[in-house]
């Protein structure tokens, strides 16, 4: 056995582990410690999963005794990827909500016949006149600040990560 054989074997085990791990993250799948395999609640769940993941390297009900040991070896790499993906999705969701809110504000401003710069200026003067803050954090230390966008000339919230 040479280095290429070991690399190829590890690659196949990683693919099988990843496929098994992703299957276990879906509802309807559980791990059986006695049989050392993934157990499926119903055939409908399995057929739906197979339709969505036709290239899965692991099939339910097939023994996978290496899974527990591979959890310690591979999980760290996989967990980092999952965390990064979740952070990316959260950022995208936040940006989409901000864009949606901005479009809603533009639509509301157009319906009122008031330009958005006038609206922002009115809101800014009202907030400066009102010195009573309900938050325990001073307005200057808030995580949301405003910045001026030169393209459209209006103030937009800037979320600091």
From TrEMBL:
Residues 135-145 have a biased composition (Low complexity). Residues 114-134 have a biased composition (Polar residues). Transmembrane segments: none annotated. InterPro entries: Myb/SANT-like_dom. Residues 94-149 are annotated as: Disordered. This is Myb/SANT-like domain-containing protein. Residues 4-41 form the Myb/SANT-like domain. It comes from the Eukaryota. Pfam families: Myb_DNA-bind_3.
